[in-house]
Design brief:
This protein has 58 residues and is mainly α.
Length: 58
């Protein structure tokens, strides 16, 4: 004999699994690589130093 399954719980379990799969796909598609993050951080630092160099002393 088969096991009795609560349909509401079963649907929620399926929905959670589908959402997790979608999230994993989005992480793969839209995440940045370590090199991209480091390059962007270096650009931000360089821009901040450039701005700081042009500030007037008061």
């Amino acid at each position: 004999m088969s096991e009795i399954v609560n349909l509401k719980r079963h649907r929620k379990r399926l929905a959670r699994a589908e959402e997790e799969q979608k999230a994993a796909e989005n992480r793969r598609r839209f995440s940045r690589t370590k090199a991209e993050r480091e390059r962007e951080e270096a650009e931000d630092d360089r821009a901040q130093r450039h701005i700081d160099g042009h500030k007037r002393e008061s």
